[in-house]
Design brief:
InterPro entries: Beta_prop_At2g24240, BTB/POZ_dom, SKP1/BTB/POZ_sf, T1-type_BTB, WD40_repeat_dom_sf
GO biological process, one term: protein homooligomerization
CATH class of the largest domain: Mainly Beta
CATH superfamily of the largest domain: YVTN repeat-like/Quinoprotein amine dehydrogenase
Protein name: Chromatin remodeling & transcription regulator BTB-POZ family
Structural class: alpha+beta
Pfam family, one: Beta_prop_At2g24240
CATH topology of the largest domain: Methylamine Dehydrogenase, Chain H
Number of domains: 2
Order of helices and strands: EEHHEHHHEEEEEEEEEEEEEEEE
Helix content: 10-25%
Shape: elongated
Number of helices: 5
Pathway: Protein modification; protein ubiquitination
Length: 272
């Protein structure tokens, strides 16, 4: 039985809800409610009364019932897309997915939905996003989907073939890095950071040598938790190397040139 000190009141969109700290504790430290219990968070509970949350009360009722029972029941008056949006806000998508589809089992995978559409060129890359969605690169276009396979506005790079794509969820939950075979503009970097939900270019990653911005083709991408990005690059004069950039600022941190050495091996006097 919950004690008086354990009980918590919320005013969600004008409707009062009462629950317990024990129920909210199962949401985890990364959730909206976990942040309320974190002394170092800016989001603190109101010890004197109810906490006001300016969100949908109908969705809050469904999510609170999920926390209480472990079961997901969605009434007819609650659109699923709206519920999933609210679950993302509260940081409860893992609980919603587990209740709706069960725990992930790689041995029992089966198609759930397919998408159709047009894109120039062959597929070059497909990458999973941090929130369960994905993106697919075809020729000069990148199609982006959320975890329900609803499509965001595609990114069209105007005949600049995409070589690789990658998510930077640790830095920006909507950040998508795209590398191309041609610069994204005159003498500009061939790698750009885009907003995946709006398709907007945030900034380019330029390759600078002796203070001069160089034109280059970018290839495979790799990311490090320290917010660094690596990419193999080729210049106009076939200078090969690996560039290193800061994902927060786009600033180049280093560039490692790869020198192609002519190697000759002698087999019984025959030079190869």
């Amino acid at each position: 039985m919950a004690t008086q000190n354990d009980r918590i009141k919320f005013n969600v969109g004008g409707k009062i809800f009462e629950t317990t700290a024990t129920t909210l504790a199962i949401t985890g430290r990364q959730s909206y409610f976990g942040a309320m219990f974190d002394e170092n968070s800016d989001l603190q509970m109101n010890p004197a009364g109810e906490d006001f949350i300016d969100r949908s009360p109908d969705c809050f009722s469904v999510l609170l019932d999920l926390l209480r029972t472990g079961e997901l029941y969605i009434p007819a008056n609650v659109p699923e897309k709206l519920l999933y949006r609210e679950a993302l806000f509260y940081g409860l998508m893992d609980q919603v997915r587990a209740a709706k589809w069960g725990q992930f089992d790689g041995n029992r995978l089966q198609p759930s939905k397919s998408v159709t559409g047009w894109a120039p060129g062959d597929g070059t890359a497909i990458r999973a996003s941090p929130d369960g969605g994905c993106c697919v690169a075809h020729g000069s276009m990148v199609h982006i989907y959320d975890w329900m396979l609803e499509e965001y506005p595609p990114i069209n790079l105007d005949y600049q073939r995409v070589n690789d794509v990658g998510w930077v969820g640790s830095v920006d939950s909507t950040g998508l890095v795209i590398s191309t075979c041609q610069p994204l503009g005159r003498d500009q970097g061939a790698i750009g950071l885009f907003n995946s939900t709006r398709g907007e270019l945030k900034f380019r990653f330029n390759a600078i040598h002796q203070g001069v911005v160089k034109s280059y083709t970018a290839g495979a991408l790799s990311f490090k938790k320290s917010c660094n990005m690596f990419s193999c690059c080729k210049g106009k004069s076939n200078e090969d190397g690996i560039g290193v950039w800061d994902l927060n600022t786009g600033q180049q941190l280093d560039f490692f040139y790869i020198h192609h050495l002519e190697t000759r091996i002698s087999f019984n006097g025959l030079m190869v």
